Amino acid sequence: MHDWPIGPEAWQAIGLTLQLAAMTTLTLLVIATPLAWWLSQTQSRWRAPIAALVTLPLVLPPTVLGFYILVLLGPQGWVGMLTEWLGIGLLSFSFGGLLTGSIIASLPFAVQPIQYAFEAIGKRPLEVAATLRARPLDAFFNVALPLARPGLLTATVLSFAHTVGEFGVVLMIGGNIPGQTRVVSTQIFGYVEAMEYTAAHWLAGAMVVFSFGVLISLSFLKKRSDRVMP
């Protein structure tokens, strides 16, 4: 029987990575959509600092971001004190901590495409909806959200892909615990440390193919949305 070049621990890491990416993407869509809507519509003086805060994970080194999230989740951090008070315990070096860090690290990849899509709609469709006596909430769900579908699709693909490829943040927050926090990127790191280059090649090559597929998918989704949307 042919032996796989990667062991069971790698398959476990792949499964955990897909689970983490799926949960991160779903959570981000819930958080990012109203935040992107607010950023696209508001004239508040808080718009610029909040937009900068959302963008911060794009420019910070992942280890810096991961370090401060780790401090936040720790026993002296606000989130750590809250989770301990709630009886949940500390989230650092657990899947819950990994999920929290992934959501923060991937936030701009979800917010910005949706925000740009909302801004591209303009005010005219909403004004027309208002003249038809649509309430603001109805106009949002029945007019703005369908028109922003290209941005939502792009946000979904980018959030999933970025979570799959994240390394620095997950290593800082989750470490490299098999079955709990070890994901594909940290599994490759482990293979390289153990000088198991054949297994590292297989996993790294799979990541290259996956990233290429993501870019092709984005291009396909954009063309399809351009044909469907007016």
How is this structure best described in words?
The protein is mainly α and 230 residues long. The protein has one domain: MetI-like fold (Orthogonal Bundle), CATH 1.10.3720. It has 11 helices and no strands. The protein has helices spanning 8-41, 47-59, 62-73, 78-85, 95-121, 124-131, 136-147, 149-165, 168-174, 184-193, 197-228. Helix 1 packs parallel to helix 5 (95-121) and helix 8 (149-165) runs antiparallel to helix 11 (197-228). The relative contact order is 0.15.
List keywords for this structure.
230 residues, mainly alpha, MetI-like fold, globular, transmembrane, transmembrane helix
Quick overview of this protein structure:
The protein is mainly α and 230 residues long. It has helices spanning 8-41, 47-59, 62-73, 78-85, 95-121, 124-131, 136-147, 149-165, 168-174, 184-193, 197-228. It has one domain (9-227): MetI-like (MetI-like fold, Orthogonal Bundle), CATH 1.10.3720.10.
- Strand residues, percent: under 5%
Q: Categorize the overall geometry.
A: globular
| Poorly predicted spans | none
> How many distinct helices?
11
- Amount of helix: over 70%
- What is the rounded distance between the termini? 55 Å
CATH topology: MetI-like fold
Query: Number of folding domains?
Result: 1
What would you call the structural class? mainly alpha
Average predicted confidence as pLDDT:
88
* Rg value: 20 Å
For the biggest sheet, the summary is: none
Q: Quickly give the CATH architecture.
A: Orthogonal Bundle
Q: Would you count the extended β strands for me?
A: 0
Write down the secondary-structure element order.
Answer: HHHHHHHHHHH
CATH class: Mainly Alpha
CATH H level, superfamily name? MetI-like
Function: Part of the binding-protein-dependent transport system for molybdenum; probably responsible for the translocation of the substrate across the membrane.
InterPro entries: MetI-like (IPR000515), MetI-like_sf (IPR035906), ModB_ABC (IPR011867)
Organism: Orrella marina
Family: Belongs to the binding-protein-dependent transport system permease family. CysTW subfamily.
